[in-house]
Amino acid sequence: MKKITRQSDCLIWIFTTFVLFLTIFSSIYPTSSQDIKSPYDLSPKSSSVHQIIGNSGLASAAALMGGGSGTLNDPYVLFYDPINASLNYCGLLIQNTTKYAILNNTEIFGADLGTGYNITNLNLSSVENFMINNCSFYNSDLDGIFIENATNLIITNINCTNNGRRNEAWTQVEGKGLNIINSDFINISYSHFSKNLLSGIGLENVNNSIIISNNLTENEGNAEEVNGIGLYAADSNMISIIDNNISYNWLRGIHGINLNDWIFESNLVSFNGLSGFSECHGAYIQYSKYIDIINNNFSKNEENGLVIDNSNLSIIKDNLAKENGNSGISITSSDLINIQNNSIENCVKGFNLEWCDNSNFTLNLLNNCGGPGVEETGFFLRSADNNNFKWNIVNNSIGYDFYISNSDLNSIYGNYLYNKSYDANQDMNNWNFTDYGNYWNNYSVYYPGAIATNGIYDTSYERIYNETSSFGNASDYLPLTYDYWQEIYDENLNPPEPLILQSPVLQILDNPDTDGNITLNWDSIENAIGYNIYNSSTFISDIDHLPIYDTTSALNYNFSGLSNGTYYYVVSAYNNSVESNGSNCVWTEVRILPQEIVLPTPILDSINSTDDDGSFRLSWQAVEGAVNYSIYYSSTNPESSGNLEYLITPISSVDGMDLLDTVETTFYDVTGLSNGTYYFVIVANNESGSSEPSEIISVTVEIPPEEEQKPFFTPIIVIVSLLGVSIGAVASYFVPSEKIVDFLKESRDKITRKTKSDVKSEVKGDGETGDLKANEQQLSLEENVPISTEINWQRYISILEKLWNYLPKNLRDMLLNVVDKYLKFRDEAELIILNNFHTLSLGYLSSFILFRTGDKNKCISTLDEITQEAREKEFQNLSEEAEITKEEFDAPLEESTKEKEDLT
Hints:
Elements: H1 2-28, E1 50-53, H2 54-63, E2 76-78, E3 83-84, E4 90-97, E5 101-104, E6 107-109, E7 120-133, E8 136-138, E9 143-148, E10 151-156, E11 159-161, E12 165-167, E13 172-174, E14 176-189, E15 192-194, E16 199-212, E17 215-217, E18 229-242, E19 245-247, E20 252-265, E21 268-270, E22 283-286, E23 289-294, E24 297-299, E25 306-309, E26 315-317, E27 320-322, E28 327-335, E29 338-340, E30 343-345, E31 349-357, E32 360-362, E33 365-367, E34 377-382, E35 388-390, E36 393-395, E37 400-405, E38 411-413, E39 416-417, E40 420-423, E41 439-440, H3 443-446, E42 452-453, E43 456-457, E44 461-465, E45 470-476, H4 482-493, E46 518-521, E47 530-536, E48 550-552, E49 556-559, E50 565-574, E51 586-590, E52 610-611, E53 616-619, E54 628-634, E55 648-649, E56 658-663, E57 667-670, E58 676-686, E59 689-690, E60 696-701, H5 713-734, H6 737-751, H7 756-763, H8 793-803, H9 809-822, H10 826-852, H11 856-873, H12 878-881, H13 886-903
Parallel strand pairs: 1-4, 2-5, 3-6, 4-7, 5-7, 6-8, 7-9, 7-10, 8-11, 9-14, 10-14, 11-15, 14-16, 15-17, 16-18, 17-19, 18-20, 19-21, 20-22, 20-23, 21-24, 22-25, 23-26, 24-27, 25-28, 26-29, 27-30, 28-31, 29-32, 30-33, 31-34, 32-35, 33-36, 34-37, 35-38, 36-39, 37-40, 39-41, 52-60
Antiparallel strand pairs: 12-13, 42-43, 44-45, 46-49, 47-48, 47-50, 50-51, 53-57, 54-56, 54-58, 55-60, 58-59, 58-60
Helix pairs in contact: 5-8, 5-10, 5-13, 6-9, 9-10, 10-11, 10-13
């Protein structure tokens, strides 16, 4: 009893929230089922899926439709002309939103693209605080609406009809009117789910939700494998199903698997199941516990009105099961069930109990149940032990009132029994209590000589009995007179009110809490001697299975030192006899912010005021306490005042600037800018807020037209490194030295536009070597150097042609100088080429590694040193260099070969 009341408290809380939300939305767009268009209206096919992604997409869409600001009191409003989703997998997709919004007066139909399992007219994925109102979804090839990973949704006054498909290859059907998975706090009300080919509503891993005042009717299957369920639910907890019409479904009205803490109350579950098919029940609950089934009407279902299978610790109370094809209520493989005050009429079996143990059956009425067969009876027990049957009325039964087979230790007393009963186990069951047994309607007829003493006859009643003979020797030894039975029954039907403690009412907590200290407060409860405190990390609707956190006699309780998170609390009153129901559940989110830090203003490092390629690095000094930095920019000076002579000027606000990026580093690489002047500002951020903006820094990009695509020195470093090592190897092993000399000499002649005689005159000291220009004649060297079969010599020749104008001048001069000196030192020239290409290659490779590791300044410094060394040497001591022998060069040549292999 306490459990029912507590779940009702949760229901009231959920319903109150639902009504508030519904009232606010209804004030914006009043609902009217007449606004929903006919399923047969034609609309042009939508060329693509309508999509709303994120809160920004939600705001943009609402701005074009119904407006709103995304709050509870002013939600975003969406509505569409009819969406024909034919040739699409989805009509409307909404993802990753948290703002309050409503989809109103919209019709979506016909999603049919593909054979997958994501076909739906409306798809809500990772959506919060959303409402669907006065809409229609039909003729989808799979689901009318598909919802996943959602929370706090309201679905009201909608139609989901004719969704799903018959898969002929698999002889089965698939599709639901409304399919919800992995979601919480969903409210579904005043809606119609009919003629869908698998189920009207499907729930999987859905919690803390309510389904109220809906029609789930005529959901269909096929003849080969019957489906068609009004409500299907699996792996879901704390759901309330209230006041729904669940009727005329092909297989079952309700099918639930692995459910916990559910309430089924005041539903009409009737006319479910097709004639001639099995397992057609009004409601079928499997592998579940703590299920409250109260005040429902399970009538005229094809087989059983209600089936409880492998489900424990549940309550079945105040239900009507009438004119079902088999049992009114069937309980199998289930324990600890309380069945009270149910009415079962005109059923083949009133109660079918198999492997049902340790349960209580009290104050139930069975009228006109049974039949001529052995199993057609009021109470049918098979392998059912340790159950109590008391104060039940079995009236006008046909056949047996009780038929007991292979069942032990059951207690049967205080019942009104109309006909005879059968107990195959005889003395293994108790047909009377300490002071009395049962009233037997025909006892006075067959034992006219029995004498009643204080309402109890002095002659026992044999349970197996007919008019001519009796069988068995187990009897009701204390049968009751009718008047005495009526007196005792009335006392049990209307017991005196026990002492009941009122439930405390907790004061609402501040939300959020910012210091981790929470105090619960409540008013005094009459006749209470103390109060139990319960807490949880999820909403508390039932304290029956919660451990008591603490007990106090005061009217308040303090929690301190809480860390960030959400906390839920309930309080109950108690005395020496009884504990009250739980109070209302209050909750708060503890959100302790770091101690507020006033962040210093970032200080930008200096930077060149001009840039010639549109790419540069902004850097700044680290700000203590900052977790990241925002970079703002503008192509116009955000504050026209100030002196930009030194590139920076104070700024008071970033209004009017654009956010470029937010980073956790103290630098940012700007790339891809075109010509113009750009202004940058840095702001430091942490959980407490943001700093004042830094001073403005400006950079003017001036990319020369002919050099806008000029490569940076990085590829030069790589290629020169490869070139040096490779030419050394080629010169030494594969290409005759005369060919290298011819190639370099020819290169000199063509690049400088000079003749051979000019070269000779320069060697003699006549004239000077001129600079190489970017626009000078390109080389064509194929006729001078053959292609090696072992190394692609032509590739390196081509690279050198392309890079000649980008090589440092001293390197170009060095190459030409070697050619000039060749005429004087022919034999030594090969070694000179090898030695100096090897040295320069390793130097450039070292610079490249420095650049890759981010040490840009040291990289440039190393390049300067290499250039300076080449300039100072200029091969004046060529005779000394020529003294290097072949043997002395072998070691560095092997090293250069290894470098080449590593680079490859």
